[in-house]
């Protein structure tokens, strides 16, 4: 058996690799997953990604459509698993002192990024500051 501590983490860090999957943690770090870091959509072409809120507050942001200026903002809630589907663009934002557990494929080489429209960035930041 292996015990993995989730304390003293920051940013994105893989904490366990298995044969076909891995576990990672997003722990608040402003330049990695804070509100000012929200500038890009990520996408995984061939895999899903699951998120579980451990502490604090976190949100998944998804565009309505691939090149849309409309977006969805989902507040993560404890005791729920949020699964982003393959080919679904997304971004995660954490508040200070927050941690999110992530389960995903071991091989994430099929991932990509693209810039979020500045109007979406501004709208999301305004919504989260309230």
Computed CA radius of gyration, to the nearest angstrom: 14 Å
Let me know the number of strands: 10
How widely separated are the two ends?
44 Å
Q: How much helical structure, as a percent, in the residues?
A: 10-25%
Strand order of the largest sheet: 1-2-9-4-7
User: Could you state the order of secondary-structure elements as H and E?
Assistant: EEHEEEEEEEEH
* Assembly category: single chain
Task: Detail the poorly predicted runs.
Answer: none
Note the overall shape.
Answer: globular
- Structural class, please? mainly beta
Number of helices: 2
Strand content: 35-45%
Q: Please, what is the average pLDDT?
A: 92
Largest sheet: 5 strands, antiparallel
């Amino acid at each position: 058996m292996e015990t993995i501590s989730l304390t003293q983490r920051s940013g994105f860090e893989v904490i366990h690799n298995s044969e076909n999957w891995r576990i990672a943690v997003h722990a608040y770090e402003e330049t990695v997953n804070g509100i000012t870091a929200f500038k890009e959509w990520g996408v995984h072409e061939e895999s899903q990604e699951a998120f579980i809120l451990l502490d604090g507050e976190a949100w998944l942001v998804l565009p309505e459509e691939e090149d849309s200026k409309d977006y969805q903002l989902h507040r993560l809630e404890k005791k729920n698993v949020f699964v982003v589907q393959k080919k679904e663009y997304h971004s995660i934002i954490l508040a200070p002192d927050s941690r999110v557990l992530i389960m995903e494929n071991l091989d994430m080489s099929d991932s990509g990024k693209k810039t979020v429209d500045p109007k979406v960035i501004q709208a999301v930041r305004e919504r989260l500051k309230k």
